[in-house]
């Protein structure tokens, strides 16, 4: 008798599950039909008095509407707001894969950014791989994931994604690799950057112009200017390479070499801008080389990068130099303004304090703060 009851209970449970599945499949067909056939589908779905949308039902609907990724994405967002839909990892990954497959990178990024904060790399990559089954989009999708980790400054997470891609036999895009290499540069992880660059080359990722510019910046940080010159000799050059050389030589006090490369830029029709000349000016201000300061300022006036009498431009000049981290040059103009009793904007004092603090020039920052207090300015 007990066995009969147990058998009946199991049969009833199976029957109920089967009926639920039929009902879900019917509802998925009904919703997807409205989505695909009606341009203004919102009122039609509202008339159905739909229950709370669950992930399995959502995935069935998306499977039927995947021919129109934008529509699928619109429904995804609408369902979260109107059907109390709480997407799981699988649902998120599926909508990201669909979006990226049709070039909808902008709306996919905030969705992925959320997943990066809430899921471990291996779990996220695994779910993305499942979402890409039956397509040839895995390398592109995981390259996008790698790029997102890198742009958030999550270097270790980016390296993990790269490893997972290698295991899966995927070659990341040069764009994604550049993003990770750039994150390493910004984090002053020079040694790690060189290691990763070597791995890139071994795995068959072909460098582009931006890769070379990052390599040049690493070389500049290491003070290996002669290696940058080799890149120029190989024909890999643009204004950034010359600007890096000018900046590097200016920081080391080799102003003859700095002016030499400024001339080469002009000869090669790569006209140096405010930023490049500011590197020489900043280096000369730091070392107290008055002759070089006067020389470079004359050139900047001739090229109309500075006004002959910048009385009304001190605010903009100081802010520009602070934004470029040229604090010694910014300090020179700041002192000139103070000596000439010119009233600067509150934002200019703020820029000076922020830039000096960033460069760990605490004594100078305190001096600027005293000027702010003496003048009773709000920052």
Structural summary, described in words:
This protein has 379 residues and is an all-alpha fold. Among the domains are: 25-32 and 53-146; 238-306, no CATH class; 307-379, no CATH class. Helix content is 75%, strand content 0%. It has 21 helices and no strands. It has helices at 2-37, 42-47, 55-65, 69-82, 89-101, 105-118, 121-131, 138-151, 155-167, 174-186, 190-202, 209-221, 225-233, 239-251, 255-267, 274-287, 290-302, 314-323, 327-339, 346-358, 362-375. It is elongated and about 90 Å long. It starts with a helix and ends with a helix. Residues 1-9 have low confidence and may be disordered.
Task: Tag the structure with descriptive keywords.
single chain, 379 residues, mainly alpha, 21 helices, 75% helix
Quick structural summary:
With 379 residues, the protein is an all-alpha fold. Helices cover 75% and strands 0% of the residues.
């Amino acid at each position: 008798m007990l066995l009969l009851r147990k058998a009946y209970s199991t049969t009833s449970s199976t029957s109920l599950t089967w009926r639920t599945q039929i009902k879900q499949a019917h509802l998925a067909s009904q919703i997807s039909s409205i989505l695909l056939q009606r341009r203004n589908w919102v009122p039609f779905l509202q008339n159905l008095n739909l229950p709370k949308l669950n992930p399995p039902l959502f995935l069935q609907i998306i499977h039927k509407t995947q021919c129109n990724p934008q529509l699928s994405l619109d429904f995804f967002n609408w369902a979260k707001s109107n059907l109390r839909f709480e997407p799981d990892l699988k649902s998120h990954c599926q909508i990201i894969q669909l979006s990226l497959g049709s070039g909808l990178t902008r709306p996919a990024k905030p969705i992925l950014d959320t997943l990066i904060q809430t899921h471990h790399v291996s779990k996220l990559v695994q779910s993305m791989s499942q979402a890409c089954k039956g397509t040839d989009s895995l390398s592109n999708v995981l390259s996008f994931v790698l790029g997102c980790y890198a742009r958030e400054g999550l270097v270790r997470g980016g390296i993990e994604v790269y490893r997972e891609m290698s295991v899966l036999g995927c070659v990341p895009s040069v764009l994604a690799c550049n993003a990770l290499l750039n994150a390493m540069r910004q984090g002053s992880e020079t040694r790690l950057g060189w290691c990763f660059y070597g791995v890139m080359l071994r795995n068959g990722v072909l460098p582009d112009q931006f890769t070379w510019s990052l390599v040049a910046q690493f070389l500049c940080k290491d003070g290996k200017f002669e290696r940058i010159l080799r890149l120029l000799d190989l024909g890999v050059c643009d204004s950034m390479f010359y600007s890096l050389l000018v900046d590097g030589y200016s920081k080391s006090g080799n102003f003859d070499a700095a002016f030499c490369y400024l001339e080469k830029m002009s000869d090669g029709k790569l006209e140096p801008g405010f930023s490049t000349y500011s590197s020489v000016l900043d280096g000369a201000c730091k070392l107290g080389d008055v002759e070089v300061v006067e020389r470079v300022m004359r050139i900047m006036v001739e090229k109309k990068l500075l006004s002959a009498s910048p009385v009304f431009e001190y605010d903009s000049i100081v802010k520009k130099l602070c934004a470029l981290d040229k604090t010694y040059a910014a300090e020179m103009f700041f002192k000139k303004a103070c000596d000439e009793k010119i009233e600067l904007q509150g934002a200019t004092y703020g820029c000076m304090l922020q830039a000096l603090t960033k460069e760990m020039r605490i004594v100078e920052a305190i001096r600027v703060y005293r000027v702010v207090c003496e003048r009773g300015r709000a920052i």
